[in-house]
Amino acid sequence: MTAWPGALVLIGAMDWDRPDWRGRFYPEDLPDDWLLSYYNTQFQAVYLPAARWQAASAEVWAQWLDDTQGGFCFVLEPGAAGAVPPVSPRVVLATPAWAAAHIWWLSEPLDPRALAQRIARQAAVREPLFVFSRDGDLARLEQANNLKQIMGY
To answer: Of 101, 102, 91, 99, which Cα lies nearest the Cα of 68?
Structure first.
């Protein structure tokens, strides 16, 4: 991948359908079918477990793509042999080699200096960096997003 056309730093979580975010991130009364659109107001990417994306029909995928902004990316955990992700420039299969080069998993505690150095390395070669939280820790996601903004990405 060279000269990535979109944002160079994309922040997100593993899946957007997180019951523990109700009332903390998502408004209590937000309809379930609006969760992804709301998620996309704060985050630029989502990492989807194989079971989740493989179970989605073509119609569901079309809706997901329609519910998100043009720069939003779906990063997919590799699935079962023969599983074919939808064809879209906004959908990326995270093979092990690709993931090692393009994903930073937020861990506790966040090391802002290490993340800033990784962002700078990715930006120097115009390669995207996807910063994800496995556990959906909103405080760490906010810290990563603040660092991204401070760095001008």
So the answer is: 91
Pairing between β-strand 91-93 and β-strand 129-133 as defined by DSSP bridges: unpaired
pTM as predicted: 0.93
Alpha-carbon radius of gyration of the chain: 15
pLDDT averages per 10-residue partition of the chain, 153 residues = 69 96 96 97 96 94 95 93 86 95 92 95 93 96 95 93
**Contact partners, residue 14, CB within 8 Å, separation at least 6:** 46, 47, 48, 49, 132, 133, 134, 135, 136
Domains of the chain: 9-150 (3.20.20.410)
